[in-house]
TrEMBL record:
Keywords: ATP-binding, Ligase, Nucleotide-binding. The keyword Ligase applies. This is Cysteinyl-tRNA synthetase. It comes from Nonomuraea longicatena.
Amino acid sequence: MLRLHDTRTGRLEPVAASGVVRMRSHGVRGLRAALLPDLIRRVLEVRRVRVFTTGPALEDGFLGECAALNIRPADSTTPGPPGSGLPDSGVSDSEGALVVSFGSAGSAAEAGRVESEHRLLVAPMLVEGVAVEGGEAAGLDPLALRMAMLERHYREPAALGWDELQAADTALRRWRARVADWAESPSAPMARERVERVLTAVEEDLDTPGALRELQELERDPEVAAGAKLESFLHLDRVLGLDLPVEIGKR
């Protein structure tokens, strides 16, 4: 079950693994704040939990940057500039937080009439020094930035420069090449125990650095067949959002 750090209580709190989970973004300031609800949505959806998201209307340019990082837009937008439209959240506009509501929502979530039993407040630290523009001109894959952000816990400060982005780009391209190689091997069921280790790490307050380490161990494990590694990486990419199968069939 997904557990998230509630900023108001200072504790890890479980998020219901059934019904509908509703998220409302508050003060979206930068790509890390935009990545947070996308990652939570992906974690829940891979467990077959329905998610409905609301956020402030964003400028087209920023929406384009989000799209380049496979960050899905909110299902509906709130009026006003980023940072408005979250009554009773308990935080100021500047904190860039996310309200996660769940409980007896039922189908009313889509209509915006959630009578939630539980409400968590999740706040990411901002990323400093990120250069989004010019990355492709320098030969970096746009998703290298997503990879670099996943390599750091969302509640830890992160200063990302070209060295970090280039290292993430190298790791991303290596995984894509490995996935393409594994796709040429006989198929096999995914390594469920290994997959669960990755998902368990992500479900523990979005420990994406730990999840990526587990994925690296799976990559190197000689006991797991290539076909099983392929299916495992494809399944886990539903959470990671790194377009890992993009090189399949291009060789």
